[in-house]
């Protein structure tokens, strides 16, 4: 048994190309460091989480979010290893470095301006296999990022690649989640390599589950923090006994769930209402609208810290039908759901964000039209950065050329999109020496 587990762990840490010289780091630690130093990771500093950081408030962006997800993911893995030292071998092993690396990588494929552009790019790329942020993250780490002339991508271990796969399947292969997938057909060989040791159909690996959970924990908490600071989420009213604001919020949540057809949530309305009220009444200190006083800063930090600690400590191992898996307490899953709904009610549904997103979609659609048309005419390839011209020259099909255009736009920062759109549309006549994509 021990020999089998040792072999299993060795295979988990196997790379497609084994050329790394020993430098004292484990293979998973090298994965983590390669991701941290990649240009794709640095780009996340100028990619929106929910609202752009240039709105006058210090909002989280995709970079700060990813760093916090990595911290929470690592603590989840360490907590399980600490609490169950004799059982980790029973559920595939659990490496905190693998979880942290996957957390750093999970949002690399997130396009500029958030999920609204993910939907837009999916529509624009529909005839070439679509666009999905998770699949784009996998494409970046296996193909688009650079580390060595000997191979494409970052040459990450099988364990890390598998841990990045929140949705470990190709498009249209999982009948229960047709709108989500984790890899494009062009990366099918990499998907097979990543999943070779996990032939469990559509089930996430243990480390992918922890990456996914860390993502949920992190963004539900820091979105609430951000928008309370900005005066959008009225926690001071929601946390007060007998306030009508709580009723307004709860009515909005369940009307939205009814529209989405989520009957299982609607049937649990009274239970979820009680969970939400107790969460705020018990854990959130009574406050006034946020003005930034020392007491408010301390109280808010204590609130967010207690929530994250609460959810990390709420994870345990559970034997489900003979399979050992990490598990979060159901009541904590409900709390996370209700915290996410705060951002939907008070931010995402607001007209100000909707009109802004309409403009963002217009910019991206315009750039796609320009680039996809130019990709079919070699005389216009000078519009593309050098690397993408090289790809167009090697492309054997229209699909490959359009995919190059999608990769280019999805890999831009938000400032690059705005500057490039202004230049192409003639709204900006700045110097030709200033390259928006430099």
Task: Tell me briefly what this model is.
It contains 20 helices and two strands. The protein is an all-alpha fold and 438 residues long. The radius of gyration is 23 Å and the shape is globular.
Tell me what the structure shows.
- The protein is an all-alpha fold and 438 residues long.
- It folds into three domains: 206 residues, Orthogonal Bundle (Hypothetical protein af1432); 140 residues, no CATH class; 69 residues.
- The protein is built from 20 helices and two strands.
- It has a two-stranded antiparallel sheet.
- Helix 10 runs antiparallel to helix 15.
- The longest helix is centred in the C-terminal third of the chain and has 25 residues.
List the helices and strands and how they pair.
Elements: H1 2-12, H2 27-36, H3 39-43, H4 62-83, H5 96-105, H6 115-124, H7 133-144, H8 158-164, H9 188-195, H10 206-229, H11 235-238, H12 244-259, H13 263-266, H14 269-283, H15 294-312, E1 315-320, E2 323-328, H16 330-348, H17 351-375, H18 386-394, H19 398-410, H20 414-424
Antiparallel strand pairs: 1-2
Helix pairs in contact: 2-5, 4-5, 4-10, 5-8, 5-10, 6-17, 8-9, 8-10, 10-15, 10-16, 14-16, 17-19, 17-20
């Amino acid at each position: 048994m021990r020999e089998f587990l040792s072999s299993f762990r060795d295979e988990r840490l196997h790379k497609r190309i084994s050329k790394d010289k020993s430098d004292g780091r484990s293979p998973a630690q090298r994965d983590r460091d390669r991701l941290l130093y990649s240009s794709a990771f640095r780009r996340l500093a100028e990619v929106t989480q929910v609202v752009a950081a240039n709105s006058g408030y210090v909002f989280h962006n995709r970079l700060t979010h990813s760093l916090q997800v990595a911290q929470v993911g690592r603590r989840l893995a360490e907590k399980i290893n600490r609490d169950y030292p004799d059982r980790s071998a029973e559920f595939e092993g659990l490496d905190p470095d693998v979880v942290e690396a996957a957390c750093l990588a999970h949002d690399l494929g997130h396009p500029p301006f958030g999920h609204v552009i993910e939907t837009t790019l999916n529509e624009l790329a529909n005839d070439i296999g679509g666009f999905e942020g998770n699949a784009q993250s996998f494409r970046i780490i296996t193909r688009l990022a650079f580390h060595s002339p000997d191979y494409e991508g970052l040459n990450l271990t099988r364990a890390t690649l598998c841990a990045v796969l929140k949705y470990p399947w190709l498009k249209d292969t999982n009948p229960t989640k047709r709108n989500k997938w984790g890899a494009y057909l062009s990366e099918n060989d990499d998907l097979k390599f990543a999943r070779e040791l996990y032939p469990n159909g559509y089930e996430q690996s243990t480390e992918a589950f922890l990456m996914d959970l860390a993502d949920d924990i992190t963004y539900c908490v820091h979105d609430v923090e951000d928008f309370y600071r900005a005066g959008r989420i009225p926690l001071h009213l929601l946390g007060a006994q007998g306030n009508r604001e709580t009723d307004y919020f709860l009515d909005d949540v369940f009307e939205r769930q009814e529209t989405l057809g989520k009957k299982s949530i609607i049937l649990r309305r009274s239970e979820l209402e009680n969970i939400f009220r107790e969460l705020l009444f018990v854990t959130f200190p009574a406050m006034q609208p946020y003005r930034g006083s020392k007491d408010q800063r301390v109280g808010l930090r204590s609130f967010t810290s207690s929530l994250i600690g609460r959810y990390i400590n709420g994870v345990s191992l559970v034997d489900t039908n003979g399979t050992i898996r990490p598990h979060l307490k159901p009541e904590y899953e409900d709390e996370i759901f209700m915290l996410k709904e705060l951002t939907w009610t008070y931010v995402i549904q607001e007209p100000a964000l909707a009109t802004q997103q309409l403009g963002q979609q217009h910019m991206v659609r315009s750039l796609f039209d320009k680039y996809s048309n130019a990709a079919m005419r070699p005389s216009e390839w000078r519009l593309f950065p050098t690397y993408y011209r090289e790809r167009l020259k090697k492309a054997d099909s229209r699909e490959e050329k359009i995919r190059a255009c999608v990769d280019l736009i999805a890999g831009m920062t938000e400032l690059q999109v705005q500057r490039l759109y202004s230049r192409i549309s003639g709204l900006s006549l700045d110097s030709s020496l200033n390259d928006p994509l430099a």
